């Protein structure tokens, strides 16, 4: 039971299980893993796919012959294992050129280079069968307001996204672009900090239908926001194109913890939401093993992410089928026909009737039984129901 299988659509980034454990204070603690080796290991564990930044596969400065050899080995591993590459993304944060932004650098040379890198990553992804292109504006932000860049950054970012979408159409690549918000880190403040701000930006693009969200558990949590609500809003807008699952404590550095390691209850309601939403895209784990771990710990981490998801999925199913939960929810949503007839689309008659409405006093004193409902959720989570 709880064995991950490809149909569960679990994916990992080459950069996640391949994370070598560097942090701002300490050096690498693990050796780099070869991409084709990662593919074989992930397939053994039951994953569906592997995602990558351009540079995870083809390090900067690789010669064309070397590049061809790496690609050959990687594609062979994909063929042997059946693993997919559903998503690609350009690394627009490591190169020193990007220290004051990539697509929103004040230097047009840098903006042009970031755009070139994005187009080349789209070419690479198309060759590997990717259909989702993630844009994470990690360096698109600032520590200093004196430049006034906050007034220009949106325009530059929009221009780049419009260019990329037009290129995808021109080449017939069929990408769907998933934009990933984050409040800070590595910049002091990143433009586009939350799901809400990304959704607002999409409406200003030339091809809004090609753009959606790649929300991340850790990122909304860093901002002190409710990730379940953020995902629900993305779903409501028809914009959940991809999702980054991990865990995080609020008000801390970007921790990228194993899924479910910290906020079990929020993870439970997230899985509950995703599984009932009709979302059929990848369940991507954008997390990495703790710096304390060796390679054995890395695979324990990867397996743990998937198992916790599957356990929570089963718990969510049992919770929704629990007769006591159902009874409480029936009561919670019980709707009298009389007020219902006054709601919905506007009409002048309804407006008249609404003005004549008196709220029955019992509507003020009623209890919503949320203590009992929440306790049932806790008991399901604790495994006593
Ligand atoms: C982070 C981000 C990244 C992006 C990845 C894809 O916190 O560092 O989440 O991991 O998801 O770079 O663009
Ligand atoms: Mn992150
Ligand atoms: Mn991170
Ligand atoms: Mn992410």
Automatic annotation (TrEMBL):
<feature type="binding site">
    <location>
        <position position="254"/>
    </location>
    <ligand>
        <name>Mg(2+) 2</name>
    </ligand>
</feature>
<dbReference type="Pfam" id="PF01261">
    <property type="entry name" value="AP_endonuc_2"/>
</dbReference>
<comment type="subunit">
    <text>Homotetramer.</text>
</comment>
<comment type="similarity">
    <text>Belongs to the xylose isomerase family.</text>
</comment>
<keyword id="KW-0413">Isomerase</keyword>
<feature type="domain" description="Xylose isomerase-like TIM barrel">
    <location>
        <begin position="40"/>
        <end position="283"/>
    </location>
</feature>
<dbReference type="InterPro" id="IPR036237">
    <property type="entry name" value="Xyl_isomerase-like_sf"/>
</dbReference>
<dbReference type="GO" id="GO:0042732">
    <property type="term" value="P:D-xylose metabolic process"/>
</dbReference>
<dbReference type="GO" id="GO:0000287">
    <property type="term" value="F:magnesium ion binding"/>
</dbReference>
<keyword id="KW-0479">Metal-binding</keyword>
<feature type="binding site">
    <location>
        <position position="216"/>
    </location>
    <ligand>
        <name>Mg(2+) 2</name>
    </ligand>
</feature>
<feature type="binding site">
    <location>
        <position position="286"/>
    </location>
    <ligand>
        <name>Mg(2+) 1</name>
    </ligand>
</feature>
<protein>
    <recommendedName>
        <fullName>Xylose isomerase</fullName>
        <ecNumber>5.3.1.5</ecNumber>
    </recommendedName>
</protein>
<feature type="binding site">
    <location>
        <position position="219"/>
    </location>
    <ligand>
        <name>Mg(2+) 2</name>
    </ligand>
</feature>
<dbReference type="InterPro" id="IPR013453">
    <property type="entry name" value="XylA_actinobac"/>
</dbReference>
<dbReference type="GO" id="GO:0009045">
    <property type="term" value="F:xylose isomerase activity"/>
</dbReference>
<feature type="binding site">
    <location>
        <position position="256"/>
    </location>
    <ligand>
        <name>Mg(2+) 2</name>
    </ligand>
</feature>
<keyword id="KW-0460">Magnesium</keyword>
<dbReference type="InterPro" id="IPR013022">
    <property type="entry name" value="Xyl_isomerase-like_TIM-brl"/>
</dbReference>
<dbReference type="GO" id="GO:0005737">
    <property type="term" value="C:cytoplasm"/>
</dbReference>
<keyword id="KW-0859">Xylose metabolism</keyword>
<keyword id="KW-0119">Carbohydrate metabolism</keyword>
<feature type="binding site">
    <location>
        <position position="180"/>
    </location>
    <ligand>
        <name>Mg(2+) 1</name>
    </ligand>
</feature>
<feature type="active site">
    <location>
        <position position="53"/>
    </location>
</feature>
<feature type="binding site">
    <location>
        <position position="244"/>
    </location>
    <ligand>
        <name>Mg(2+) 1</name>
    </ligand>
</feature>
<feature type="active site">
    <location>
        <position position="56"/>
    </location>
</feature>
<keyword id="KW-0963">Cytoplasm</keyword>
<feature type="binding site">
    <location>
        <position position="216"/>
    </location>
    <ligand>
        <name>Mg(2+) 1</name>
    </ligand>
</feature>
<dbReference type="InterPro" id="IPR001998">
    <property type="entry name" value="Xylose_isomerase"/>
</dbReference>
